[in-house]
Design goal:
Blueprint (H helix, E strand, L loop, with lengths): L2 H8 L6 H10 L2 H7 L16 H5 L10 E3 L7 H16 L3 E5 L5 H16 L2 H5 L10 E4 L14 E8 L13 H25 L6 H4 L6 E8 L9 E6 L5 E6 L5 E4 L5 E3 L7 E5 L1 H6 L9 E4 L6 E8 L9 E2 L17 E2 H11 L13
Helix pairs in contact: 5-8, 6-8
Length: about 375
């Protein structure tokens, strides 16, 4: 056991609140710690020693994440059906797949990553103006949304912004990433709607079924910045969790670190495929498909080679006002397949998620009948 682990173990009962408040009130996030020259992972980020083997272990698994070429969708009917079946198999098993020829130009992908980098690497005093824990703001920058509820903090800083259905005014977005956020959001929204068509067909429903349910109505763009970590074996970039949306489209750089929990209980690396976007099923899609599609747990390892940059686009209205109720799709139910979940609003689901943070337990369990 390292010295850092031993020290943390001996001080489990310490009062974390002053440490958390000091970090939060600096408004400089994990990057601020790195810029200050820290050579050890501060106590608030260190995983408990008894958690490390389970949380940081990995191994060899037969589990794989398919790469699907969307160019075939525009081919003949047989080619499109092949794509639909590949999407169906991935959604029912791994819950993850990657897409190529998705229609978003490489220049836009690179510009979006550069925009995230510019925001987080700009002068700290400029960045502080956007630091908040008010999730109703159009643009929110902070470090660890669950800082005060999670057992340990994660080694990352984040911004998120609501880009649909009620996008912010341009002047509500930071100049460092304003133009590319607007452009990328439009293009990823188009891709998301096309993916929802494929997912609808994969369920045996009409092409527009999931779109007409408003699964693609909301879009939240989340920029993650994972600074280099001096002791990456002691912490995580993002703890184990499943996504609290219908569908996620993820842009990641070439640093790597994203891992998916396989059905045989092992952590599997998501390979970096040049030009590809990672797609995964969210909790709300698992709920409305009555467990037909799987929202699979995943995490991000801390790394010393960072910064790692990723952009997660969540198809969900999130905390934006909405009274729409979602429950298992009637066409997917039968006497042999009764509803597993109770109906809920997105706000109720997100409120439960926010109250519990990334505690390793899926909120889906709370909404089971």
């Amino acid at each position: 056991m390292s010295t850092a682990q031993s020290g943390h173990s001996a001080e489990q009962s310490h009062d974390r609140l002053p440490e958390l408040k000091s970090f939060d009130e600096s408004k400089l996030g994990v990057k601020g710690l790195v810029d200050s020259g820290v050579t050890r992972v501060p106590r608030m980020f260190v995983r408990r020693p008894d958690d490390l083997p389970a949380e940081l272990g990995s191994g060899t698994s037969k589990f794989s994440i398919p790469v699907i070429d969307l160019a075939r969708v525009k081919g003949d009917e047989a080619c499109r059906d092949e794509v639909v079946q590949e999407v169906r198999r991935a959604s029912e098993t791994s819950g993850f797949f990657q897409v190529l020829n998705h229609g978003i130009p490489e220049r836009v992908l690179e510009a979006m990553k550069d925009g995230v980098r510019r925001f987080f690497e700009q002068d700290g005093e400029i960045k502080k103006a956007y630091y908040t824990r008010d999730v109703t703001r159009k643009f929110v920058y902070n470090s660890n949304f669950d800082l005060y509820t999670a057992a340990v903090a994660n080694w990352r800083d984040t911004f998120f912004c609501y880009m649909a259905p009620h996008p912010p005014r341009p002047d509500e977005l930071p100049e460092s990433c304003r133009d590319i956020l607007i452009e990328y959001s439009k293009q990823v929204m188009d891709l998301g709607l096309r993916l929802l068509e494929l997912l609808s067909e994969a369920l045996g429903l009409t092409l527009n079924y999931l779109k007409e349910m408003d699964c693609g109505k909301g879009l939240v763009v989340i920029g993650h910045y994972y600074p280099p970590c001096p002791e990456p074996g002691l912490t995580l970039g993002t703890s184990k969790h499943s996504d609290n949306d219908f569908l996620t489209v993820l842009l990641q750089d070439d640093v790597g670190g994203l891992q998916v929990l396989s059905d045989d209980g092992l952590w599997v690396d998501v390979p970096v495929v040049p030009g590809a976007l990672v797609v995964n099923i969210g909790d709300l899609l698992q709920l409305i498909t009555n467990d037909r599609f799987k929202s699979v747990e995943h995490r991000v390892r801390a790394n010393w080679a960072g910064p790692r940059i990723s952009v997660a686009c969540f198809f969900s209205t999130s905390f934006q006002p909405s009274d729409k109720v979602f429950g298992p799709i009637p066409e997917l139910l039968s006497a042999d397949n009764p509803p597993i979940y109770k109906s809920t609003t997105i706000n109720k689901y997100l409120t439960y998620f926010a109250e519990h943070g990334l505690d390793g337990n899926s909120p889906l369990q709370h909404f089971k009948l």
